Amino acid sequence: MTKKTEELASEIRQVRQEQRQSQASGSVQSGYSITINLLTDLVGCVLIGLSLGIFFQRVFNTSPVLTAGLTLLGGVAGLWTVIRQAIRLQKKR
Question: Which one is predicted more confidently, 72 or 2?
Fold first, then answer.
């Protein structure tokens, strides 16, 4: 190999190493950010179920049972999402 190709190969190795380091540091999440993400998903699902229940109650003049049911369904969906994400995080580590 000539001197020029050796320099290029060295630069390519250096750039690849920097990319690996930046990817590794970017994918690491702190426990606080993971907790916030999981709680946001859980609370978001419950609020979506609650707001859909209130919407249907007002528009179609249904009983509050539908609102309670949709809120519970949102809670179950939120728990399911949190469990799936926790399993996925556990497999990553």
Answer: 72
Q: Evaluate if pTM is beyond 0.85.
A: no
Q: Map out the domains of the chain as residue ranges.
A: 3-92
Residue whose C-alpha is closest to residue 86's, from 18, 20, 39? 39
- What is the rounded CA–CA span in Å between residue 65 and residue 58? 13
1-39 pLDDT, tens digit per residue, is 688 788 888 888 888 888 777 666 555 577 888 899 999
- Could you tell me the sign of the dihedral formed by the alpha carbons of 27, 31, 33, 39, in that order? positive
Sign of the CA dihedral running 89, 74, 55, 36: negative
Q: What does the angle CA 72 – CA 78 – CA 80 come to, to the nearest 5 degrees?
A: 105
pLDDT given for residue 28 in this prediction: 59
Task: Report the sign of the C-alpha dihedral through residues 66, 69, 75, 80, in that order.
Answer: negative
Q: Where do we find the tokens 């707001």? A: 51
